[in-house]
Amino acid sequence: MPHAVRWFRILSLWMLWALVMASPSRVAANAAPPEAAGGGNPGPETGTPVRMVRERVEITLTKDGRRASVEGVYVMQNTGSQEERLQVLYPLSLFFMQCEEEEIRNLRVWVNDIPAKVQRIQGEPRGEYCDQPTFWAAFPVAFPPGAEVTLRVQYEQKTWGFSPYLVLTYLLETGAGWYGTIGEAEILVHLPYPATSETVVLSEDFWGYGRGTTPGARLEESTVRWVFRDLEPTQDDNIFLLFMEPQAWQEIQRRRQEVKQRPNDGEAWGFLGLAIKKALLLPGPGYPMRFQDQGAQALLQEGLQAYARAVTLKPQDADWHYGYGQLLALAASETQDPAQRAAYLEQAVREFQQALALKPEHEKTLTFLNEMGWLLEGWIQREGDTFRFPGLTATPTFPPVATATPSPEPTLASPTVPYTTPTTAGHLVLATPSLAPTDIPASPTMPTASEPAGGASPSSMLSLGILVLLLGCCILVTVVAGGIFLFRRIVRTR
Length: 494
What we know:
Number of strands: 19
Strand content: 15-25%
CATH class of the largest domain: Mainly Beta
Structural class: alpha+beta
Order of helices and strands: HEEEEEEEEEEEEEEEHHHHHHEEEEH
CATH architecture of the largest domain: Sandwich
Shape: elongated
């Protein structure tokens, strides 16, 4: 083999390997993923006078929220004058926004309490953007004229989503093939914790998921309930339940209990703020937040109050100042109220300033300021590797920590966090004790708080730059080698 050809192939293979190694192992959650389970109303194979008179579907989530068991009961009635013998279809696979699927498991079917023989059949592709076939469970049913026939199904399915929020789906649209409307439909989802505005996202759209919880949901103890009457189901009526991952909710509950037991422990308050912040943050570039719905606003305020208590009780802990500042800054990026936004940003900058005063090389603070500096424009100014804070009206000084006495701890039911609302400028001022730089010990002992990292470090950005440079060199060498090879071939032909 000529040397030029050999080198051309070697370099091509090396470039392909480099591209594979350079591809990200985790995809940012800036587009909705596919729903990961099928299941929904049964439908007829062809047109029919049989109507779905009523249905009741009960869905029970597992303790971790990752799977669910489903039981559906459907009462059918033949409105015609002759017996109808139909092949009834039940959806096994479901596609949503992307061409991927996951079938339901352990499907069992009964017709008038008699087990039905079910076969798996292949259907048409989902749509023009997906050429993968759909799959259905098919079983024969005879519908005598005027009589009611009861279909009952049981199966298991997965939920899907990005931690800390998961999604459960159930298709109503597959019942559109029956005659007329669905007389009455009741869908119940049993959660492994109380169904509240905190745990269930009652919003019609949600960042990264394409949509939020289907409207009309009622929260009853630990159950989410929908009731429809005379429904002509379409895709918009499909059940879509967006809920907090049980693990995140359990962590918040555990931290709430700790602050009740140790009301003057700054660490306990800080970890409560951290648990709430983790429950509000969504994966993706720019730290998107759950923000708009009522439950999110209640959690946000509780998280801010918890962080305010943490930095009051532990003013020398740079980690809690950073965590408080991050939550304030991200809340500012979501709010549409100019006055509230300015208040959040001012207090956030004060917390970042205090974190760096306590620990000038505080990595999480520096990383966040580097990544989200656009959000704090006018409030911070970078000078080399350091930051100045010209946007603050004044830098307050506070007495040394040794003379500070923590105020009595408020309860979560009626918090009395030190917030004051001045009559000037309409800004929310959080009276959080701080330290002047001259009061900082030379080598303060900092407890480690498990604050989430602010994002990619400068070293990771440098590695990415080196990788891009190597890929560019590889492409250049490949082009040159290919040119040499072609030139030799031309010379030989001549």
